[in-house]
Amino acid sequence: MSGSPDVLAVNVCDLRYQFASGATEALENCTLQLAPGSRCLLIGANGAGKSTLLRLLAGKRLADANIQVFGHDVFRSPPQGITYLGTEWAMNPVVRSDITVSHFLDSVGGFRHADRRDKLLDLLDVDLSWRMHAISDGERRRVQLCMGLMQPFRLLLLDEVTVDLDVQVRCDLLEFLKEESIQRGATIVYATHIFDGIHTFPTEVVHLRLGHTVPNRSIPWPLPSLNSMHHEVRAALPSALRPSEAADDSRLHSISLLELALAWLREDRVLRTEQEQSRGIKRGRAPRDANSETTDAKKFFNQYDYYDNYTR
């Protein structure tokens, strides 16, 4: 890896971002600082800002902010070696056209990285004779990963791209990425809601809550001992899992990623509900008795309600 070891792979401080049509900020007081070779897991509920943060890091959304990757501003002087892989790729009509995988990979330069391409083809169990329009979503996702990872990366941003993979392929892929970070010093930021089989993957976790990083620092993983844990990290642990001063470290070391994520998400939902109530926001709810209210829409759609016939 080139570059000074003192330069952070990702350096974002107090990031704020608001969509043009948004009434509130999508990201606020968001801080992320990662050393080269880190494997960071983003944890947060749907809508917490994970995808927005990843797209900003990749330079795919413009923002009036100082977002540094390997010491470069991602908007003004983006560095080489940033790879972003998101779920929207599979819906692109181009990648659903009648073209073989071999021709598709060659069209994006696969021949330049033949050895690495072949390793990924085996790892992801991709058949070069597949036709892109005739394969499943999971197979198409494996082609995307092969395409995206063929060229060696310095920073890899993954946004839920393992959701379509079977267990074996997913585990093999994560092992490959772990080797990339150890052997080449590559940095990985991975947003996912699937926590089985990744307990040993991250070197740190980041909790995004309603657009905020809580705390404003990454949390080492596995969790450090109580005595060496930063006070902000200790305060940011879910109350159900937070140890007392007198507790030993055995409880901390036994916490799984799923347990930690679930406790955070439960707290996040409560906080979101409280904030919505304080702003006078009421979520839409269906009436308790669906037959107690008749509307014009209900009359119209009853003409096309096949549910009774389907269930008989």
Automatic annotation (TrEMBL):
Key word Iron-sulfur present:
no
Q: Name one Pfam family in it.
A: ABC_tran
Q: According to the UniProt record, where is the region Disordered?
A: 275-294
Q: Does the keyword Amino-acid biosynthesis apply?
A: no
Q: Which residues form the ABC transporter domain?
A: 10-235
Could you list this entry's UniProt keywords, alphabetically sorted: ATP-binding, Nucleotide-binding
Q: Which GO terms describe its molecular function?
A: ATP binding; ATP hydrolysis activity
Q: What is this protein called?
A: CCR4-NOT regulatory complex component
**Origin organism of this chain?**
Malassezia psittaci
Gene name of this polypeptide: CAF16
